[in-house]
Specification:
Helix content is 7%, strand content 2%. It has 189 residues and is largely without helices or strands. Strand 1 (13-14) and strand 2 form a beta hairpin.
Length: 189
């Protein structure tokens, strides 16, 4: 919220070893928690924008629908107030119309109810791009994104929730080309 009021300069800086690029608001620090991504989706090519073009045996869609189970976020969302935003990373002179529903089922999910802690480590979506937040191109370098974190208590049955897409390059249709994503923890794949 401070960055929305004061600008991206108040966000902590991340810089990897093989680049001079500086990325604002990417990793967690003692004084900063990155935004939590409840869901991510990419609108399929051609929704409504090309409906005037006839293609043999193809029907252009007018809308795209997405559904995501977010029960795992119960420990973060319960008994607190949250701002929920929508980031749209493309530009259309006509804009976008969004509707969202969050449904809460009493009793919830047994697994989620046993979850006692969640710790956001990073978020590479440049939510404040229009305010000058750098595009997260750190994955183009061999070292990618490296984060050091310490837990204050022992953790059993830990899970990492990580969302990846093919987007992030600038050529050769990167979002359509499979890529290997590797996560290491304490130098173990």
């Amino acid at each position: 919220m401070d960055a929305l009021e004061q600008g991206v300069s108040v966000l902590p800086i991340y810089q990897n070893q093989d680049s001079t690029e500086k990325f604002q608001g990417v990793i967690a620090t003692n004084n900063y928690t990155p935004p939590i991504e409840l869901m991510r989706f990419f609108t399929p090519f051609g929704v409504k924008g090309f409906n005037h073009i006839e293609v043999l045996d193809y029907k252009w869609q007018d809308k795209a629908y997405y559904r995501q189970e977010i029960t795992e976020f119960q420990p973060l969302l319960s008994n607190s107030e949250w701002y929920v935003g929508v980031y749209i990373g493309n530009y259309d002179k006509g804009g976008h119309k969004i509707s969202a529903d969050i449904t809460i089922h009493p009793g919830g999910n047994d697994v989620a109810s046993k979850t006692t802690m969640m710790m956001p480590l990073f978020n590479t979506t440049n939510l404040m791009e229009m305010a000058g937040q750098n595009y997260p191109i750190m994955f183009a370098s061999p070292n990618g994104l490296k984060i050091t974190f310490t837990t204050t208590t022992d953790i059993k049955n830990a899970k990492l929730r990580y969302i990846t897409t093919g987007h992030g390059g600038w050529e050769n249709g990167d979002e359509f080309n499979p890529k290997i994503n590797t996560i290491t923890l304490d130098d173990n794949k």
